[in-house]
Structures are given as C-alpha cells and as structure tokens.
Specification:
single chain, 46 residues, two-stranded parallel ribbon, 1 helix, 26% helix, 22% strand
C-alpha cells in the first residue's frame, strides 16, 4: 500500500524554505517538494 501524496504541477522551479527540515515531517516536506522539482532550502538547529 502506498501513502497518498499531493501533486502540485505548478511547483516546478518554485522556491521553498522549510524550517526543521533535517528530520521528521520537515524532512518529508523537503523530499516531497524536491520530488516535484521545486527549489528547496531548509534549515535546522541540530
């Protein structure tokens, strides 16, 4: 069984900044946006 994911066709080359992107939900967001060809930057304190 695969997990559902949102697909947004207009995210290609969009810029996204994610805080807390090193683990957990933040890391999943980084992977999801990158898979949809967005330009992703993320920060984390650990």
């Amino acid at each position: 069984m695969s997990l559902p994911s949102a697909i947004f066709p207009d995210l290609e080359d969009a810029g996204v900044l994610i805080t807390g992107g090193a683990s957990g939900i933040g890391a999943a967001l980084v992977a999801g946006f990158a898979a949809q060809k967005a330009k992703v930057a993320f920060v984390d304190i650990d």
